[in-house]
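Re: weekly structure request thread

Next one in the queue (414 aa):
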Amino acid sequence: MVTHKPHNISQEIVRGAYKLVKANKGSAGIDDETIEDFEQNLEGNLYKLWNRMSSGSYFPPPVKLVEIPKKSGGKRGLGIPTVSDRIAQMVVTLYVSPRLELIFHEDSYGYRPGKSALDAVGKARERCWKYDYVIEFDIKGLFDNIDHALLMNLVRRHVSESWIILYIERWLKTPFIDSEGNKIERTSGTPQGGVISPILANLFLHYTFDKWMKTENPQTPFERYADDAVIHCRTEAEAERILAALDKRLKACKLSLHPDKTKIVYCNKTRTRSNYPNQEFDFLGYTFKRMFYKDRFGRLLFNFLVRVSDKSAKAFRDKIKAMDIHKRSGSSIKMISEQINPIIQGWLNYFRKFQPSAVRYNMDCVNRRLVKWAMRKFKKFRGHRSRAVEWLNALAIREPNLFAHWKLGMLPTW
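Done, posted below.
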């Protein structure tokens, strides 16, 4: 094949990028082309993309803007690139990621290989036992407000390939197209939903926050997952000083703290401060707070513990309720299992890591829906909830793998 191109881009990396994009799934972009559509002429499409990127003639198409509801209320704009553009972004990510991984801070957990949100939660829990105060903070609209000029300065510091710099600049300037067909020009930010966006955001926050903390507050640990982070402090005075300095630092980098999601929290596990306004916080779906627990001798003691947050639990129950399982009397129990079990399994995998007993109430919600389904589907159970519960319990004993929570002994109860 012809390989004398202005930019030396491996065809194998383009193919590898396609495989990763396919594995991540995702919906169609502004051209309505799905992965399946793209695969109708896979070799031709991949060659065309490689050819354009290698010659410098690749121009990203506009990004489809979709508004999705936020857990805290309101809506968040999600940018969905086309399939071919996601592959192009993945190509650049594969080139850039290994070198940036060498400089990223060990306590940056978001969107990084070998690190996870649960790792961040576990480390935060461990440090809350050693430090009396926490600064919980969130950066307001990070993906919408990253300054392009500052970001590109950082990209050039670590990237020498002219074609990578060229395409990152083009992606940053690519406009949105909203649901009504309106074109929205972009002067800041990197689209939340873009393949390249997470690593660009991590690069920006590495210098804005991670490296700044290491230089200015080397004895003060933190955990950061994208724009959500906590800082551990020994005293209230130290927390107030660092928070004030952080506010100035972010403003200097053209970002700002989210006023409703930033606070100082007292988290000593033994000594109380009953008049202190903040004594718990949420981080990555978990609530950190002082709670009772039983030791191995059955004694009730206090500790600063971690459990699924009320918001996360409610979001799960709302999702299950919205599926209207109980109304699907035409479906078999196996059909319902195939639909909802992946959701249950994923949720349990994440939220049973810390204080697993706290998830039982949410599994009761699933069971109640299944009982209602059985009462609608079978005439013999109509008006007889106890019979439906007994039948489901017997089924759970015979086929415990039918639902993820049944395997854990979380069965329907009267």
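Residues 12 and 108 are 30 Å apart (CA to CA). The chain has a mean pLDDT of 92.
Next request, please.
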